[in-house]
Amino acid sequence: MPLPKTDTAENPASARTAVVEARNLVKRFQGMTAVSDMSLTLSAGEMVGLIGPNGAGKTTLFNLIAGSLKPTSGEIWIGGRDVSQDSPEKRITRGVGRTFQIPRPFLDMSVLDNVLAGAQAQDGEKLFANFLRPGHVRRQEQAAREKARALLDFVTLSGLESQPAKVLSGGQRKLLELARILMADPQAILLDEPAAGVNPALLETIMKRVIALNAQGKSILLIEHNMDMVSRLCSRVVAMAQGKPLAEGTPADVAADPAVIEAYLGGAA
């Protein structure tokens, strides 16, 4: 999986098919509105940054798109299909995977087995297939193991495949989680603060892998407070505040928007 030579993603959003659409989303929790009339489109091959101050509703929006929360109103479309009421598992099969700000590996399982846990539609999970088609099950499991090893190599963790996941650093766990969701071959990847708590060397590795995935055609929606990372990766940025859309445009235009400065700094600027 070669890395691209460029260090930036400059993919025009025009003339592209929408992979993920959030349409007029609202999410309320016991009278509190976390997301209000929020719409967002992620096009094929695009890399979009989602920014906003703490409490802006970014992670809630991610949870709505990924399916761990259901909207109070509004719709989520993936690949031209309304998936608003579908489970997270169904949305993975529709082509959307997500990572978490704090990775969630199976700590006592090996690094390789953690990646294998992301494999979808494995016949070996069916009781009768193991008795009626054992050769097919073995071949499928071998193919999954080869794919998992290739992904570990891609995220620079191949030398740790037999180690338990609990030995990994925070940044390595984020790379492991990325490899695990790639087992499902999603077309769109939701990355929740991949730079948070990561040392500079590993952050560069994460960024290069994200750039490589985008160059391979993956669409990426990125929550991030590290504006240098957002500026290097994303051609378009959407800003949120108080659950609502605030601004949209290039990283430079959004960072200079008075409403965005007000939301982050409360007018102190």
SSE blueprint and pairings:
Elements: E1 18-29, E2 32-43, E3 47-51, H1 58-66, E4 73-78, E5 81-82, H2 88-94, E6 96-98, H3 111-116, H4 127-132, H5 134-154, H6 170-182, E7 188-192, H7 200-215, E8 219-223, H8 227-233, E9 236-241, E10 244-249, H9 251-255, H10 258-265
Parallel strand pairs: 3-8, 3-9, 6-7, 7-8
Antiparallel strand pairs: 1-2, 1-4, 4-5, 9-10
Helix pairs in contact: 5-6
Short characterization:
The protein is an alpha/beta fold and 269 residues long. The chain contains ten helices and ten strands.
Structure characterization notes:
There is one protein chain. The chain is an alpha/beta fold and 269 residues long. It folds into two domains: 1-104 and 186-269, 3-Layer(aba) Sandwich (Rossmann fold), CATH 3.40.50; 106-167, no CATH class. Helices cover 36% and strands 23% of the residues. The chain has helices spanning 58-66, 88-94, 111-116, 127-132, 134-154, 170-182, 200-215, 227-233, 251-255, 258-265; strands spanning 18-29, 32-43, 47-51, 73-78, 81-82, 96-98, 188-192, 219-223, 236-241, 244-249. The chain is globular and about 55 Å long. It starts with 17 loop residues before the first strand and ends with a helix.
